[in-house]
Design a protein that fits this description.
Layout (H helix, E strand, L loop, with lengths): L4 E4 L2 E4 H4 L17 E6 L6 E5 L5 H10 L3 E2 L6 E3 L23 H5 L23 H6 L6 H6 L7 E4 L14 E4 L2 H15 L1 H17 L9 H14 L3 H12 L20 H10 L13 H26 L1
Antiparallel strand pairs: 1-2, 3-4, 3-5, 3-6, 7-8
Helix pairs in contact: 6-9, 7-8, 7-9, 10-11
């Protein structure tokens, strides 16, 4: 893949990111009635996204402008017929072969990466880049040297490793989480840790906290007061992502609700199906083969009849003993 930057008009085509791609002419006379796709500014974050063209999809265009409140970008940033062979804004297979961001090729090629809004533009504040730096960082494109050269505002981007991810064999690095500020990057790491490594970090955090809480209590007699002190010190030591990981693990294995499995007394016509099933199991009534398909009324009749049969068996046993 080439590492050059090919100039075209006032824009650039970043071959180092996207490689070469055949241009797709838009507005073809032969396919004028086909739907077309172009670039928009998404509300409320201002990220670049794909959307409809009013000339081929007026209802959807109205939805984007009136309901979603997105801002339409000029055709000069790119517009093409949807589904056309070689299309880049709306490629047929956008996620194949590492081409997840290939839909931005036309936008970058037409100067969208470096374009700054003017007083006459209705899609951004004057002096700001039309494409937010946060979006570039979120896609990892700030790691490309050519993009960083063209967008100096990306120099402040922060990359943090996940401390629990295994090292990648190719680079020797762990998985990176990127953002424009250290706090935002740390939030991404914390969210990932809680979602993916909860059990590991929770057990480690609790163990470390208990060890620290008991370090100065050697030789003391274990009693309720000492236990309360250790628990309080352990809870106080667990902060931030550690407490979030513990909460996540706790939610993964919820405890069964306490309380009786069914109301007191004998089965009644207003009992729920699960109450009748539980009562039958506790009172020695065999489970029918079609128990899962039986209705509540059928279960009530079965329990009542089953109880009657059981009573008759017990009465016969008593007569035999006499």
């Amino acid at each position: 893949m080439s590492e050059t930057v090919r100039a075209k008009g006032s824009g650039v085509l970043l071959e180092s990111v996207f490689g070469d791609s055949r241009d797709t002419l838009s507005g073809s006379v032969a396919r004028e009635r086909s739907g077309r796709v172009k670039y928009w500014k998404r509300h409320p974050d201002g990220w670049i996204a794909r959307g409809p063209d009013i000339r081929t999809d007026a209802p959807k265009w109205q939805q984007f402008t009136m309901t979603k409140r997105w801002r339409e970008l000029p055709d000069s940033f790119g517009i093409e017929v949807q589904g056309v062979a070689g299309g880049s804004i709306q490629p047929n297979h956008p996620a194949r072969g590492g081409m997840e961001h290939h839909w931005l090729l036309t936008f970058f090629k037409n100067g969208g990466l470096t374009y700054t809004c003017t007083e006459a533009d209705t899609f951004g504040k004057p002096g700001e880049y039309v494409m937010p730096a946060e979006q570039i960082v979120s896609m990892g494109l700030h790691h490309d040297s050519e993009i960083r050269r063209l967008r100096p505002d990306l120099e402040v981007a922060v990359d943090l490793e996940c401390p629990y991810e295994p090292h990648q064999t190719e680079t020797g690095e762990r998985r990176l989480f990127s953002a424009m500020t250290l706090s935002d990057a740390q939030k991404k790491v914390d969210q990932h840790v809680v979602a993916t490594h909860s059990s590991v970090i929770a057990s480690k955090a609790v163990g470390n906290a208990i060890a620290a809480a008991t370090a100065d209590k050697g030789g003391q007699t274990i009693n309720p007061e000492l236990i309360a002190q250790i628990v309080a010190a352990t809870v106080a030591a667990l902060k931030g992502v550690e407490s979030g990981a513990i909460a996540s693990v706790a939610q993964e294995t919820p405890q069964k609700p306490a309380g009786p499995r069914y109301p007191e007394g004998d089965p009644a016509p207003d009992w729920k199906r699960q109450w009748l099933m539980a009562w039958a199991a506790d009172n020695g009534i065999p489970m029918p083969e079609n128990r899962l398909s039986m209705s509540r009324d059928a279960w009530f009749e079965y329990v009542i009849e089953g109880g009657g049969v059981q009573d008759e068996v017990e009465e016969e046993a008593e007569l035999v003993e006499v």
